[in-house]
Amino acid sequence: MSNQELVVLGRAEEAGACCPGVATAPLDEDQAAELAKVFKALGDPVRLRLLSLIASRAGGEVCVCDLTPAFDLSQPTISHHLKLLRQAGLIDCERRGTWVYYQALPGALDRLSAFLTTTRKTEATA
To answer: How far apart are CA 44 and CA 100, in angstroms?
Structure first.
């Protein structure tokens, strides 16, 4: 993954920046590139688990001190993965004293869900 900041899915200013559902309309090049960056961030098992741990937490947020023990990885490695999830626009954080608290961005998760939802009706096989 490159060091440049990733565009947050659906937050671009130009019209039509939000991706249509996979079965409703084909993506243009820019939409595909934008969406691929988000899926690339989710393409790592550690980042996928981190997002799941954050999104499923009661109260909507989790301290980094509670995330690190869930993995057999160093704290700097966990921080790197969290940074990539932030750059992809999937999570955000807030520093409170020494600790950083993470929360999933529901809008980003909703847009991914909407993209992956198939709205086209399929014929039943006989």
So the answer is: 22
